[in-house]
Amino acid sequence: MSQEQPPASQSSAEADTRAPLKVDFCGELYEVQPGQVFRIGRQGDLSLDDNPFLHRSFLVLEYVHGLWWLSNVGSRLAASAADSTGSSVSHVAPGSRVPLVFPEMALVFSAGTTTYEILLQVPCPAYSACTMSAATDMETTIGAVSLTASQRLLILALAEPWLRRAGTGPVDLPRNVDAAARLGWSLTRFNRKLDNVCDKLDRVGVKGMRGGPKAHASFRRVALVDYALAARLVGVEDLPLLDAAAAAAKEA
């Protein structure tokens, strides 16, 4: 008597649950198997570098209750987890965790002035990423907030080293004075624009945009770039705008 076979869709789903999560950092590829706890930090399965601002054990990837999860086991640093289009961005604070529900995701975080990106390929995702249409002008809208052309240029100047890098991996962000010089702006104008864009994003709930007496001067800038990269507010295709802005400033 022949044994009844499970439906093809069921067999496919069971196979997906056994498939590994794929991790890409600087071209180094890792496969995380269900049942494995994969640690990321200065030490662990993925050892990033000797950055003293980075936790020894910072992020954990593991498969629990039918989903892949990202946990932040650090005490100070946060990370952003975004889908491949940047339309969905999760803030992963210390002590929290989020499910990895899209087929391709990026983890972005900073330690000191260095920003890192790790790419993930998630098996059996819960959702598909939707394709967002490209902006047709220099104004970018995020939720209820519209960024002006100059505010977008500011973000682009801060994120330029990351956008020009080859592959994935760590990048040092420029100082405010260097980013201002790149645009042909005075430092006063740059800082004023930085205040404005951070205030806008803070009002819609983006974490890390509010400074304070105990906050290091670079923390807010780093949080801004982290969010901008994860949410795809700026891209490689926008880089020519920097040269155009610098040329316009010289002619003014």
Q: What's the short story on this structure?
A:
This protein has 252 residues and is α+β, with helices and mostly antiparallel strands.
Detail the topology: elements first, then pairings:
Elements lengths: L7 H11 L2 E5 L2 E5 L5 E4 L4 E2 L11 E6 L2 E6 L6 E5 L5 E4 L4 E3 L4 E8 L2 E8 L18 E3 L2 E3 L1 H16 L6 E2 L3 H8 L3 H17 L13 H14 L9 H12 L1
Parallel strand pairs: 3-4
Antiparallel strand pairs: 1-2, 1-11, 3-5, 5-6, 6-9, 7-8, 7-10, 10-11, 11-14, 12-13
Helix pairs in contact: 2-3, 2-4, 3-4
Can you put this structure into words, describing what you see?
- With 252 residues, the chain is α+β, with helices and mostly antiparallel strands.
- It has 6 helices and 14 strands.
- The protein has 2 domains: 101 residues, Sandwich (Tumour Suppressor Smad4); 103 residues, no CATH class.
- The N terminus is likely disordered.
- The longest helix has 17 residues.
- Helix 2 crosses helix 3, helix 2 crosses helix 4 and helix 3 packs across helix 4.
- It comes from Actinomyces weissii.
Largest sheet, strands/sense/barrel: 7 strands, antiparallel
Strand share of the residues? Answer: 25-35%
Secondary structural class = alpha+beta
Q: What is the string of helix and strand elements?
A: HEEEEEEEEEEEEEHEHHHH
Low-pLDDT stretches: 1-13, 130-144
Net shape: elongated
Tally of distinct domains: 2
Q: Please give the number of β-strands.
A: 14
Query: How far apart, in Å, are the first and last alpha carbons?
Result: 87 Å
Mean of residue pLDDT? 82
Helix content: 25-40%
Protein name: FHA domain-containing protein
